[in-house]
Amino acid sequence: MKRRVAVAFAVLLILLVSFSVFAQEDEKVEKAYSCLEDRVKDKCDDLSVEEQAFTVLATGKCSSELKDKGKDNECWPDSGCRLRDTSLAILALDRVGKDTGDAEDYLFNQKKIPDDLIWYLEIDADEETVCDISYGSTEKSVTIREDKRISGNAGTCLSLAQDNYWLKIDDDCYEVNFTISCDQDFKTTLLYSKKNSPTIYVSSRTNFASAEGTTKERVNAFCFEQGNSCDYEGSLWAALALAKTNNDVSEFLPYLIAMADENEKYLPSAFLYMITDYDEYFTQIIDQQNDYWKIPNSPYTNFYDTALALLALYGLDATQVDTAKDYLLEVQGEDGCWNTVRDTGFILYAAWPKSIPIVNGGGGMDDCEAYNYFCTSPLDCPQAELLDNYVCYGGKVCCRTEPSERTCYEKGGIECEEGQECSGSWIPASDTNRCCLGASCQDKPEETECEKANYNCRYSCLDDEEEKVYDCDSGEVCCGPKVKETGSYWWIWILVVLIVLVVLGIVFKAKLRAWLFKMKNRFKKGPSPAAKPGGFPPAPPGMATPRTRTRMMLPRRPAPGRQPSRRPATKTDKELEDTLKKLKEMGK
Fold it and tell me: How far is CA 132 from the centre of its chain?
């Protein structure tokens, strides 16, 4: 009995603590939404395009003012079209069901071939083969030898390169169609690299053909231009906006991938992970986290950078996501906002998005997964399977069919055992939730006193942290969030105490009733002689107590038309039933 009571009490306590934590988070998130709406109330016209866009993404407010700030519904702002602002406007207006077709066309009209990339044609076969290459009016033959090297003259558009393993495509021939045919089974693909860089990237598409068959190759790589030159940050946002509105953006990926290392301040891995779902970009995002994200040389705040990372990681069951959310709630302003309208709107949309009403003139927007469809990355869903007018959060799009998830081995990871930790990054896989990428599985080191207390050991505490009294390894100090005085949750603990007392009263009601009876008799005036069974007074000394005669009692028959009366429910029983009913509802 005691063991069952202890288990029930422990479960109840866990439920109450969980309820308390979730209640605090919900209260803070609602406070942030209220703060944002208060800040933009009657001020939407005064906001910048990005402030309006992030406000629309979070709350749906300011959508008409954002629309009015555009130039003929094509680009934003009307005073001078910019890629980033136009892309943010597309994302925001699409969120409230507005048509953005003209703006999407505008972005596609800004694409250009980047000057920063070098392209190669690779022809491969299992045995020596002769291949004919034709383009325009030119027809040439080359030989692919057993050692994979190429010999022969392929014309003015193609020249031998990389120790004769590949054919370099001339800059003036990037929009030329190449047709290849060989006398043995073969395959072709395109490769590219950044100028003055040894890193070679392989195109995501490889074409196969049998002997005497043909394949076609063409350089299909673009950026988005701003002022006659490629704008990398603008291209990131433009690709994301077009992908979220169900457009094929694969032709922009080579430029975005190759130029990422020169533009790390914009956190390109977040955009590339949303579009491609490639695990290497997931790893890059996680590697840059320190409770939150603050990218070196970023033109934005740590709130903005953190929101961008959380947008990319939306929907993932990752501890990094929980850590970042906890950080944001810990440093939330007293009024509920984070710094500016832009940062607050971006954080709410990325971390705690809510369904918003469709504005006048907008189409219906239903939740994708509620209709048994699938939210997935744009590259994982064929164009024919993409669905309009369905909402997916983060960088996901709504797909009619479920994409096939690869195994841990197929993703290049290894599965760690329970109790081990990954020295790289955890990634999702179809066969395990313990897939480790880019490193090895290691036994967890023994936790320090500081870590056992759920704090962090660092060489120096962050600005929003303070030193705690717990021990760390040599040279490190124990750091935890600065204590913020608050009295807004005292009622939760009072509720906890009251519920615990009620439960204890129910469990031990018999003993409690006996104790109360004793206490009541103890405080009565005068002596209280012990009564004998049967109701007789105490017998005088020397006299026997009269024996009681047993009286036979016949059961009474109920009166005609009346049912036997049942024992009425006591007040205690009713309280017990009500309490158990409430506990059952809380446990749902």
Answer: 50
Query: Over the chain, what is the mean pLDDT?
Result: 83
Of 2.120.10.30, 1.50.10.20, 1.20.1530.20, 1.10.630.10, which CATH number belongs to 44-112+225-364? 1.50.10.20
- What is the distance between the alpha carbons of residues 206 and 188, in angstroms, rounded to a whole number? 6
Q: Kindly report the three-state secondary structure assignment for every residue of 194-254.
A: ECCCCCEEEEEEEEEECCCCEEEECCCCCEEECCCCECHHHHHHHHHHHHHCCCCCHHHHH
The residues with which 182 forms a beta bridge, in sequence order, are: 131
Q: What is the pLDDT of residues 160-216, one digit of tens each?
A: 999 999 999 999 999 899 999 999 999 999 999 998 888 888 887 889 999 999 999
Q: How many CA atoms lie within 13 A of 55 on its CB side?
A: 27
Q: How far apart are CA 272 and CA 151, in angstroms?
A: 38
**CA 133 to centroid of chain Cα atoms:** 47
Cβ neighbours for 82, distance < 8 A, ≥ 6 positions apart? 75, 76, 226, 234
What phi, psi does 15 have (nearest 5°)? -60, -40
- For the entire predicted model, the pTM comes to 0.70
Chain centroid to Cα 66, Å, comes to: 27
Of 502, 244, 281, the C-alpha closest to 392 is 244
Domain ranges of the chain: 44-112+225-364, 117-220, 369-399, 413-481
- The residues, ordered by sequence, that sit 6+ positions from 282 with a Cβ below 8 Å of its Cβ are 273, 313, 425, 427, 437
CA 205, CA 121: separation in Å to the nearest integer?
A: 12
Residue 168 is encoded by which pair of tokens?
A: 């370099």
Residues whose CB falls within 8 Å of the CB of residue 31, separated by 6 or more in sequence, listed in order = 332, 336
Q: How far apart are CA 238 and CA 234, in angstroms?
A: 6
SS3 call for 367: strand
Say how far apart CA 19 and CA 481 lie, in whole Å.
22
Q: How far is CA 155 from the centre of its chain?
A: 51
Query: What DSSP line would sit under 368-391, residue for residue?
Result: TGGGT-EEE-GGGS-GGGB-SSEE
What's the one-letter identity of residue 183? D
Tokens representing 164 are 């004769």
Point out the least confidently predicted range of 185-194, 414-423, 544-553: 544-553
Q: Do the beta carbons of residue 414 and residue 440 sit within 8 Å?
A: yes
